[in-house]
């Protein structure tokens, strides 16, 4: 089937029309106790729409910037669930600061049991130096355990400064580490074998200047789709988002397929920053969120909601549908995680708040347009 390029432009315009026909719904989403809430990750936890586990951190008042891990369990729509601040417990360590990122739940991993949670993140302790260490939290049958896991020197090839775990699903954890502060490296950790790999060190012959692995989704065929960002200054890429499929049963470059780069509004020349932070599967692809900044407004770092579909060859369509997420009244909004059509993150400016932003369903006018587009596609196929 061949489709004219202007047809894709029509499809993109109709998506934007459908989403902007009425405003995105923004609402604050914060712990009611002292300290500022930072929402970092989410995973569905039930067949009930909106019932999920949220991870994040809570600032500790008068601590000089330290944070405490926190988890929310319940409806993201009614916000009547339970917030639980957590203090990691690891033998022989006095923990000073902690944050949890992308979780997994018993709903997606039966080994965790009903209401089970696994979340990853980072922390510091009094004798552990000034950089972050990788952190894992597991709750099975009401029993909670904590553990430290850092990328080993033999994998990194040099002493490791920090390890930050960003997300987990299935048997894998993805995150970042570094051996020098001006270059980020990504890792994948296999829970079954307790082994680390460098993640995506080279793809299509390109060695990245810096790469992150932030979001992960386990597909029904046993592969995983990972989202993050990279820079490659030789190719004039300051910060672009990417999606790639990863098969943990394979080694080397054979483990990676369908690497695809994305930049905000599909405009590489206008985009300064386009970074994927969160991912969730849909019927035809993935919804994503992250951060963007453009040449037109480089001082405004904003979030986005994006949708990428799978192509006929099993890869990803080269263009995405994008919507800017801009919490009202603030110049800075981060898109940290996504659930269905809702983006969650943090916004700062005149106020500082965690938030939920829900993208509206298509309007009836746009639905008519989409129906017309479907007719065009049928005639061209």
Automatic annotation (TrEMBL):
Keyword Signal assigned: yes
Keyword field: Signal
Extent of the signal sequence: 1-23
Source organism, top-level taxon: Bacteria
Residue intervals of the Ice-binding protein C-terminal domain: 358-380
Biological source species: Terrimicrobium sacchariphilum
UniProt-recorded name of the protein: PEP-CTERM protein-sorting domain-containing protein
Short name of one Pfam family: PEP-CTERM
InterPro entries: Ice-binding_C (IPR013424)
């Amino acid at each position: 089937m061949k489709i004219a390029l202007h047809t894709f432009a029509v499809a993109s315009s109709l998506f934007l029309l459908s989403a902007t026909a009425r405003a995105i719904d923004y609402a604050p989403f914060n712990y009611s106790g002292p300290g500022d809430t930072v929402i970092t990750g989410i995973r569905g936890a039930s067949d009930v729409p909106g019932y999920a586990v949220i991870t994040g951190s809570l600032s500790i008042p008068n601590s000089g910037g330290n944070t405490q891990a926190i988890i929310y369990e319940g409806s993201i729509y009614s916000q009547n669930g339970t917030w639980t601040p957590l203090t990691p417990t690891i033998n022989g360590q006095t923990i000073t600061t902690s944050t949890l990122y992308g979780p997994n739940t018993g709903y997606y991993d039966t080994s965790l049991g009903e209401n089970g949670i696994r979340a990853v993140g980072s922390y510091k302790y009094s004798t552990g130096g000034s950089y972050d260490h990788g952190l894992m939290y597991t709750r099975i049958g009401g029993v909670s355990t904590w553990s430290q896991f850092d990328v080993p020197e033999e994998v990194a090839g040099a002493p490791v400064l920090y390890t930050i775990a960003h997300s987990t699903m299935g048997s894998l954890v993805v995150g970042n580490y570094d051996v020098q502060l001006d270059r980020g490296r990504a890792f994948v950790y296999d829970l079954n074998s307790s082994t680390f790999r460098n993640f995506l060190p080279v793809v299509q012959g390109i060695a990245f200047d810096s790469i992150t692995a932030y979001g992960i989704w386990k597909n029904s065929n046993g592969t995983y789709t990972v989202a993050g960002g990279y820079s490659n200054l030789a190719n004039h890429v300051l910060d672009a988002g990417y999606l790639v499929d990863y098969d943990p049963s394979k080694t080397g470059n054979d483990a990676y397929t369908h690497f695809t780069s994305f930049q905000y509004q599909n405009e590489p020349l206008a985009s300064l920053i386009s970074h994927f932070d969160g991912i969730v599967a849909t019927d035809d692809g993935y919804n994503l969120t992250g951060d963007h900044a453009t040449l037109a407004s480089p001082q405004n770092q904003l979030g986005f909601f994006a949708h990428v579909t799978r192509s006929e060859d099993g890869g990803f369509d080269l263009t995405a549908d994008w919507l800017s997420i801009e919490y009202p009244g603030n110049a800075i909004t981060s898109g940290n995680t996504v659930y269905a059509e809702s983006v969650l993150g943090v916004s700062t400016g005149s106020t500082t708040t965690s938030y939920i932003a829900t993208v509206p369903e298509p309007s009836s006018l746009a639905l008519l347009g989409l129906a017309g587009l479907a007719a065009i596609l049928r005639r061209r196929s």
